[in-house]
Amino acid sequence: MAVDEAILIVHGEGSVPPTLRFYAWDPPTLSIGYFQRAEKEIDFESLRRRGYGFVRRPTGGRAVLHDREVTYSVVVSESYPGMPESVTESYRVISEGLVRGLRRMGLDAGFARPDEEQRKRLLEPGSAACFDSPSWYEVVVEGRKLIGSAQTRQRGVILQHGSLLLELDARALFGVLRFPSEKVRERLLRSFLHHAVALGDLTGGKVSREEVEKALVEGFADALGVEMVPGELTDRERTLAETLVREKYGSDAWNFRR
Question: Which one of 1, 20, 109, 130 is the catalytic residue?
Answer without folding.
Answer: 130
